[in-house]
Amino acid sequence: MFATETPISVVLAATVVLAAIFDIKFRRIPNALTASGAIAMLGLNYAFGSLDGLIASLLGLVCAFAAHFLLFVWGALGAGDVKLLCVVGAALGAGALLTVWIFVALAGGVQSGLIVLRAYLATSDAEPTGTLLGGRKACYAIAIAAGTLGTLAWRAMGHEYISLF
Predict the structure, then answer these.
(1) Is the dihedral of CA 121, 18, 107, 62 positive or negative?
(2) Rounded distance, CA 86 to CA 100, Å?
(3) Contact between residue 28 and residue 34 where contact means Cβ atoms under 8 Å apart
(4) Given pLDDT bands bounded at 50, 70 and 90, which one contains residue 127?
(5) Handedness of CA 42, 47, 50, 52 (dihedral sign)
(6) Helix, strand and coil percent figures for the chain, each rounded to 5
(7) End-to-end distance of the chain based on CA atoms, in angstroms?
(8) HSE (side-chain half, CA atoms, 13 Å) at 92
(9) How do residues 42-86 score in pLDDT, each as one tens digit?
(10) CA-CA distance, 103 to 129, in Å (whole number)?
(11) pTM over 0.85
């Protein structure tokens, strides 16, 4: 129901790509982008699925927030990353979140490997630590965008979401 609706997929894809661009360029994801993305997802899911679509969209948003808030508290994710994942949850619903997490984790692993490789090639003293970026954290919106696009492609190829419920 969620990702098969072309307008939802297009708006979601545009939102996560823009977020990744902002994260790369400015090291932050604008609140205006995540807030408007969440409102758009709620509205589109209501438009395509009436009240059931809106409820499923709200549930996806709340589940994404609940799952990622502790990661923010522990410093593993930035607030913008959590809000961006809430937009993804609002777009695709709670039933798609496990699939999203798998694809985002894979993309994040590739991203981390590339960061380590780049640091290793830049200096012979490179160690795989959080200081590879000079004390700065990686732009995780890149992994979120890649994982979300992977999830949309997975669904577009006719696969079901990997779901716990």
Answers:
(1) positive
(2) 12
(3) no
(4) low
(5) negative
(6) 75, 0, 25
(7) 15
(8) 35
(9) 999 999 999 999 999 999 999 999 999 999 999 889 999 999 999
(10) 23
(11) yes
